[in-house]
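Inverse folding, one chain.
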């Protein structure tokens, strides 16, 4: 058997260079694959990636996930009641009788963000705001939080929370948009339906015309909901409002005049209202009032109690009084209710008519918030 020829020096150098070249090419290929994979993940999973458009305006992955997070409890309850499952972890991606939780959650998120973006676009069109991007909202929240932090460090008294989270700040911004857009469109694009006003009166006829009513005066001390900033009419935190209502009650026990003390500490006279014992429309509100006045005689007042975002003291003015309020007198109040209903319908129609464009690959990459 012939001996294997030993490569000379030149061949050894060439072989060494050849191996280096192969290693370099292989490394470059691996690096290119890694870069491509990373770019694909950023393209699909990046939080600022645009996953859909509403009315031509982009919705990022982070924004859609934010709205999905608000729907998460509803979807969980639905699958628990319908399929008897408690969703967690991988169970969100399993299928139950043809329904997959993550897909339902995405769909709910799309509907939620469409409703929100529709109102935001209107706010933009009417000059209420100049930027409706999710990034802008987050930046606004950071600016407000930084400002409140500085105020606190400088010894200023802050009402409400010191620092907003995304949810509380979002609701504040959207609430402001709704209020301002409503003021712009009512009487121009949104109108109170006269037939609806008449129907509201007829539906509540027994409240306006009967002899089974209770008449009360309410002293109400409001407090700031969690995350809200002080306004011209509401400046107290929940603890501060509670301390004030307790003090007012002590003053009443000492003989203070109900109307005078109400005007002194709230800036307004007590709100007087007449309610029907048999009303079904008032629901829990009526039950709350009856509970706190059932042992009172006309002229007496209740203990303080929490009532929505505030604390109340009720004074019983009259019991079982006869009321007769013609349609003309109730018209203004009922017209405002009808106008609010029309505005809700107006927004809903706008949202249903909005042009929605979804990017399938990016949309499919939107997972649990």
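Residues assigned per position:
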């Amino acid at each position: 058997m012939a001996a294997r020829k030993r490569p000379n020096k030149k061949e050894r150098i060439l072989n060494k260079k050849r191996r280096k070249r192969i290693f370099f090419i292989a490394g470059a290929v691996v690096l290119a694959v890694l870069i491509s994979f990373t770019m694909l993940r950023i393209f699909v999973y990046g939080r600022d990636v645009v996953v859909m458009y509403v009315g031509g305006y982009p919705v990022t992955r982070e924004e859609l996930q934010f709205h999905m997070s608000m729907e998460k409890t509803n979807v969980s309850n639905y699958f628990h009641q319908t399929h008897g499952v408690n969703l967690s972890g991988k169970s969100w991606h399993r299928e139950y009788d043809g329904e997959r939780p993550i897909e339902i959650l995405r769909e709910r998120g799309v509907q939620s963000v469409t409703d929100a973006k529709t109102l935001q676009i209107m706010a933009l069109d009417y000059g209420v705001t100049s930027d409706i991007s999710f990034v802008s909202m987050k930046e606004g929240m950071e600016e407000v939080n930084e400002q409140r932090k500085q105020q606190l460090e400088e010894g200023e008294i802050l009402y409400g929370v010191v620092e907003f989270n995304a949810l509380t700040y979002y609701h504040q911004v959207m609430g402001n948009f709704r209020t301002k857009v409503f003021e712009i469109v009512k009487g121009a694009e949104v109108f109170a339906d006269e037939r609806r006003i008449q129907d509201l009166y007829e539906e509540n006829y027994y409240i306006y015309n009967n002899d089974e009513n209770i008449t009360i005066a309410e002293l109400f001390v409001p407090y700031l909901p969690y995350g809200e900033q002080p306004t011209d009419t509401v400046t107290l935190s929940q603890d501060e409002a509670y301390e004030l209502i307790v003090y007012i009650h002590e003053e009443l026990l000492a003989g203070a005049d109900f109307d005078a003390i109400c005007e002194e500490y709230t800036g307004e006279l007590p709100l007087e209202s007449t309610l029907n014992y048999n009303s079904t429309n008032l629901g829990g509100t009526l039950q709350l009032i009856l509970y706190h006045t059932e042992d009172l005689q006309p002229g007496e007042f209740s203990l303080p109690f929490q009532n929505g975002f505030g604390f109340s003291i009720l004074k019983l003015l009259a019991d079982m009084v006869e009321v007769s309020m013609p349609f003309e007198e109730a018209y203004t109040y009922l017209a405002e209710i009808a106008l609010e209903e029309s505005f809700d319908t107006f927004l809903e129609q706008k949202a249903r008519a909005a042009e929605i464009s979804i990017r399938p690959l990016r949309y499919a990459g939107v997972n649990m918030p």
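The radius of gyration is 32 Å. The CA atoms of residues 148 and 162 lie 6 Å apart.
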